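Q: What does the assembled structure look like for these inputs?
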Amino acid sequence: MRVRVDPEICQGHTACALNAPDAFELNDANGHSKARFSEVPKDLEQAVRDAAATCPERAIILSDD
Amino acid sequence: MPTLLEDVPKHLIVDFDIFDDSIVETVHERQDELRKNTPLAYCPERGGYWMVSTYDDVYEVIRNDDIFSAAETALMVDGTLRLPPVHFDAPEHGHYRTLINPFFSPSRIMAVQEAIRAKSAELVDKFASRGSCEFISEFAHPLPTITFLSLMGWPLEDLPKLTAWTESLIVGTSRETEELMANRVVTQKQVRVYFEKMLEERRANPGADDVTGELLRAKYAGERPLTDDELKRMFSLLMVAGLHTVRGIMAYGMIYLSQNPEERQKLIDDPSLIPTAVEELLRMGVGSSPARLVTKPVKIQGFELQPGDKVVTLISAANRDPAVFGDPNTLEVERKHNRHLSFAAGRHRCLGSNLARIELKIALEELLRRIPDFHVDPDKPARFHHSQVRGVLELHLKFTPEP
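A:
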């Protein structure tokens, strides 16, 4: 599964980091998020799915391939 | 031209006014009805305003600043009191917001955690062995206020002044009497004088490494310093934004947890669940209902609103929309996929959200550790206030005294 955060849509809610701190890192200037990797490790898949479902802006894009 | 009362279809007019204190006891039931029967509703009071209550409509209105301007988020605020950045749209919004984002960033907030914990412990020390407390004046009010004063670099002895001013400015009632309005004007003047004095003092002694000092050095759009007027307005916003909001969530949180002892027990048994519980308390306890001003004709629920129409977003109704949240009126401390809108969405996402979360997390950790069996005192009813920021004025708790 691949993940990325759309920087145009992210507003720094930090819900992703609350769900999956190992998968997302937060910019210190504005709290905006970036995925730590584009390919999600198997053991983090559920947490990343939870993060995507919890983002109020729907800024996390997942693709199963 | 805003929609005139005579052009509002009769079936959209409701007998529900968010400024009316009397709705506080039944607000969630009333909002559930509204969401089901009149998802676009019109209240003829206060010059007339519209309300949206579904998650999807609230989400759209709060985020889509192309059509819904933030120039009037607070219905009672006169146009001349626009506070940057909340009452501005892009691009001005971004120019102001960029300057204050860093003060509320994750790492800045991490840095004040220990101070928040120490203050929480100190506040609890004062009542833990008494077996009772008035939670607002003894905890929920001082904690966020003192945290805020330290962050801003404002003197802690100014706590009583700030308390009196924010009471006057925020706690609106349906009895918007001449006296209350006059009092508000006096308060605004006192606040202005306070900030003017502060700016004078700071310009004479610059260099402090806190929010106030940094704002004095900041450059709007990278070009020019902020004017005194802008600084005063920003200070006013920062002052009112973080106090009654956090206090309300803390207070409602205590009420919900004491009503749901099994959920509370989960947190006592496993404090690592507290951050998730905080999200649930935010979902259920939110008191803010920001407004927007329509700038282009737009259809909501089949009816076309006109430029000049004011729309109030019932965030607490969106947060209990059964289309998004299963069992929405039930407290579930481990609720998953909790994409509540308590911090809004879009560019106006609450600046203080990280600070609010940390305050709530630490407060819960300390309270659950020290007075875990707290319950609302049945002999001393709580008092609430309504308006665009709903909250709690008085809340008496009882608990087993600490030995």
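The interface with chain A takes residues 59, 63, 98, 101-102, 104-107, 275-276, 279, 336-341, 343, 345-347, 349, 353-354, 357 of chain B (CB under 8 Å).
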